[in-house]
């Protein structure tokens, strides 16, 4: 299957570079380019891509608002948004994860990292660079400490079984299903089942949002390295 990619960035030079990179891969194709968030939303509805590479800072409708609109559209439920950012610690990135983005990637990443991120997102894993994403959220939440805890999120955790909570803690630690299976002495399939059930109960779109919920509910406490 060919992975259909939509590019959203206000810099034409960057879009051109991304297009050349993506179109050079036999399993990918660029289906559209947007120079702002409003156009990204329109083209997402028109082409229904597998992955949107979304710049966070664009004129008019920015990447955050566009991500929220795409994620809220039931017709685009299978579209994965990957945020492109120049800043690794950025309030907007965390807001984008809350809004439904599947993860983030620095604009300074190597070409192979970008291509791998697209494949991972298209495959449904959603959480890109687990350790980096976890670290970003941890550092951001640590700034506000208890002020950033979400009582409603903590209440929702009551719907989880003990094992689902254990798995959620491991997900927030940036561990893959295979790593969690080894740590908890269960099969990767069992871990996947627990992750899917936790997402359904907590209303999370993907693993990235599970990480945010784990920190904001207080289940996992941020630790500064």
What does this 3D model show about the protein?
- The structure is a single chain.
- With 225 residues, this protein is α/β, with parallel strands linked by helices.
- The chain is 53% helix and 12% strand.
- Strand 4 (80-85), helix 4 and strand 5 (103-106) form a beta-alpha-beta unit.
- The mean pLDDT is 83.
- It is globular, with a radius of gyration of 17 Å.
- It is built from eleven helices and five strands.
- Helix 6 (130-144) runs parallel beside helix 11 (207-216).
- Spatial extent as radius of gyration: 17 Å
Total strands: the figure is 5
Q: What is the distance, rounded to the nearest whole angstrom, between the alpha carbons of the first and last residues? A: 41 Å
H/E topology pattern: EHEHEHEHEHHHHHHH
Shape: globular
- Characterize the biggest β-sheet: 5 strands, parallel
Strand content: 5-15%
Structural class by sheet pairing and helices: alpha/beta
Instruction: List the uncertain runs.
Output: none
Q: What would the average pLDDT be, to the nearest integer?
A: 83
Strand order of the largest sheet: 2-1-3-4-5
Helix fraction, binned, reads: 40-55%
């Amino acid at each position: 299957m060919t992975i259909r990619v939509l590019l959203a960035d206000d810099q034409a030079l960057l879009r051109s570079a991304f297009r050349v990179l993506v179109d050079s891969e036999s399993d990918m194709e660029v289906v559209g380019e947007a120079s702002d968030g409003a156009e990204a939303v329109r083209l997402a509805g028109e082409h229904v891509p597998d992955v949107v590479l979304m710049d966070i800072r664009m004129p008019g409708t920015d990447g955050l608002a566009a991500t929220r609109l795409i994620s809220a559209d039931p017709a685009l439920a299978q579209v994965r948004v990957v945020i492109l950012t120049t800043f690794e610690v950025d309030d907007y990135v965390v807001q984008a994860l809350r809004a439904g983005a599947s993860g983030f990637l620095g604009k300074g990443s190597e070409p192979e990292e970008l291509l791998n991120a697209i494949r991972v997102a298209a495959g449904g894993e959603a959480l890109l660079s687990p350790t980096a994403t976890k670290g970003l959220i941890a550092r951001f939440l640590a700034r506000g400490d208890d002020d950033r805890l979400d009582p409603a999120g903590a209440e929702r955790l009551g719907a989880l079984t003990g094992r689902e909570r254990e798995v959620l803690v491991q997900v927030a630690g940036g561990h893959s299903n295979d790593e969690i299976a080894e740590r908890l002495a269960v099969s990767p399939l069992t871990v996947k089942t627990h992750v899917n059930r936790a997402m359904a109960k907590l209303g999370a779109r993907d693993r990235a949002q599970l990480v945010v919920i784990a920190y904001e509910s207080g289940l996992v406490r941020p630790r500064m390295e």
